[in-house]
Amino acid sequence: MDEPMTESVRTVCHGCRQVTQYRTDDGTIRPMILPGNGTVWVDRMPGGMVEEPCPVCGDSDDPGWIPGFVPPV
Fold first, then answer.
1. Is there a contact between 38 and 53 (Cβ–Cβ < 8 Å)?
2. What SS3 state is found at 56?
3. Which of 22, 23, 26, 57 has the fewest Cβ atoms within 10 Å of its own Cβ atom?
4. Each residue of 8-53: pLDDT tens digit?
5. Cα dihedral across residues 63, 67, 71, 73: positive or negative
6. What is the CA radius of gyration of the chain?
7. CA-CA-CA-CA torsion sign (12, 13, 14, 15)
8. E-strand stretches of 1-73
9. How many other C-beta atoms are found inside a 10 Å radius of the C-beta of residue 13?
10. Of 72 and 59, which is predicted with more confidence?
């Protein structure tokens, strides 16, 4: 008998996530999405970057993640 899934589903926040690449064993380069930390860098003036809370997840208890399955825009 299959047990119902009790684990909550969550998605990496699209506002503060980071995207990088990695090379597989066969040499293929693939994208990898890393969860953010709930902050974003904002350009307030030329050469003046400041760190601010992410507008999507910055005020949540679990920064870097949003509840449920949310496909990217």
1. yes
2. coil
3. 26
4. 889 999 999 999 999 999 999 999 999 999 999 999 888 899 999 9
5. negative
6. 16
7. negative
8. 10-12, 18-23, 29-34, 39-45, 48-53, 65-67
9. 24
10. 59
- 38 within 8 A of 60, measured Cβ to Cβ: yes
Q: Is the pLDDT score of 73 beyond 80?
A: no
Residue 33 and residue 18 in contact, taking contact as beta carbons nearer than 8 Å: yes
pLDDT at 34: 93
The reported pLDDT for the residue numbered 2 is 60
- Residue position matching structure tokens 């970057």: 49
Give the bridge partners for 53, in sequence order.
Answer: 39
Q: What is the largest CA-CA distance in the chain?
A: 61
Give me the phi and psi of 47, to 5 degrees please. 80, 5
Residue with tokens 């870097």: 64
Residue 39 DSSP one-character state: E
